[in-house]
Amino acid sequence: MSIPKRILALCLVFAAGIGMGSLSGHFISENSRFETFTEKLFQSEVTSSTLTLHYTLTHPEKKGIKKPEVTLGTALSDPDKTTSLCQEYENKLKSFAYSKLSHENQLTCDMLLLYFHTRAALGKNSILDEPLGPSLGVQAQLPVLLAEYSFHSREDISDYLKLLGTIKPYFQSILKLEKQKSQAGLFMSDTTLDRILKQCRSFIAEPDSNYIDNIFAQKLKTFSTPVLSTQDQQKLCTYHHKLILTEVIPAYQELADGLEQLRGTGKSSRGLAFFDGGREYYLYLLRSQTGTYVPVKRIEQRLSAQLLSDYEQIRSLLKKDPQLLSDLSAYSNELTLTPTQMLEKLPKLMAKDFPQLEKVTYELRSVHPSIKSFLSPAFYLTPPIDTQNPNIIYINDSGRTTSLELFGTLAHEGFPGHLYQTVFFGRTSPSDIRYLVTSSGYVEGWATYVESYGYEYAAALMKDSAAAGNAVRLAWLNRSMNLCIYSLIDIGIHYRGWDSARTAAFLKAFGITSASTAGEIYQYIVETPGNYLKYYWGYLNFLDLKTACQKKLGNDFNLKDFHRKILEIGPVQFPVLEKYMK
User: Fold this and answer.
1) How far apart (Å, rounded) are the C-alpha atoms in residues 515 and 504?
2) Reading across the β-sheet that carries 378-381, which strands appear in turn?
3) What tens digit of pLDDT does each residue of 41-70 get?
4) pTM: predicted TM-score of the whole model, two decimal places
5) Residue 205: how many CB atoms within 10 A of its CB?
6) Which H or E run includes 90?
7) Cα-based distances in Å from 87 to 48, 138, 436, 492, 555
8) Cβ(43)–Cβ(12) under 8 Å?
């Protein structure tokens, strides 16, 4: 996964209108008018929260953007106002003479039209949005984003310290939303509540040794514009610790206490299908997050076909070599490379399949122990668009993965995954709005698609690469099947209305008989609707696109050129991607 997509999306509230009047004068080209519109749209959206602005731009003043009052934004929104504004934007986009726009602007226009049309269709079902969650929720990701808040100037330090004082009102807006959900019969189950409360309490368990204090002190030591004296550093650290004790921890405690008061007001742990408007909201998630616009039945059919294909391939491999399963255990941990060494190897291994990128810098960091159990095995932190640095990959070394799985994870997060795709797209100099209005299905689908290559590259590093090839192929097919099964369960729970018993029966058919394992899978999918489909349905879209291009071009098909074209188009919904691939 890559962040800060989740929290920035939640903070990205539609601001007031950006001045929809058309520019006058025949000397202004249609492209100029369109680019003026998208730039104003970008400025409106990027200033909606301090985190959004800071993580998007290092030097907003160079784009003529004045920093607004420090804020995290609000979790509350006016559905009618949002719908009206989206329709206003959609009408404005339709007013441009499409044929007079450049190829790049046509692509941006198509992407924005689909985005605003989809967003406008959400309407009052927006109350089903859930900002909280044990692993992907705001309260879980906010500490990481605060820890990574970079200091380029004294103003950044000042903004950061002010930001700590805005957590409480932001959490209060979340509580207000959760109370509205509770009154409407839409509040989370007690099981989900307990998992969120556990995460909150873990973060504030040791107030006098919170890891954000330590990271703040480290950042002050390396701050150089200008260098801070030891005395100034001590004063700032003392003030920072005071804010942790008087603002941050009380904010988390108030959130936990407020949520506790709503205990028992939610339905039993069930999916979206059991809520009014839940199926419609799920379809919205598939379109807005996954970037797909095909009927659910067609998605299920394609997933089932892939599941059968993977199963047949596994059966064929095991028939040829019955020892493959036992060999896999040995090969899974044969790689003795460190994460740093793995990332150094990947660019060379991928050179035959993907366009080369020169001079890509990145940093590897470890997740703090206090939040290891709540975060993914690894994640990529996107850089500001005006500096394209730093590129940071976090490793969660909680010992839950084999060396083969870690290699695949680093291919997903690094090369040729998130980091590579982000840097490649950034070097095409896209319109700024392309960084804010994007498609998670493309982003996560691409990273999952290239992860399959990562497994292939891992085999090449093993002592007997020929023998390792089939074992590693088996490992990827097993991972593909698992993601496919979870994707089918996602639809089953949130669209078809499966309960825990129906889900357990489905898992049992694939050999997953542990009641606790089935229960954990069910609970995670209940809490993260559409999440697996972003990865796996996105992956299948790239896989099918490659198959279609191979069929059309025959011997003229070039894999590296295919990948280059996808990377140049960048993160868009799949109907838009398919249009421009053709």
Assistant:
1) 7
2) 2-3, 378-381, 392-395, 363-366
3) 999 999 999 999 999 999 999 999 999 999
4) 0.93
5) 11
6) helix 79-94
7) 19, 28, 18, 32, 45
8) no
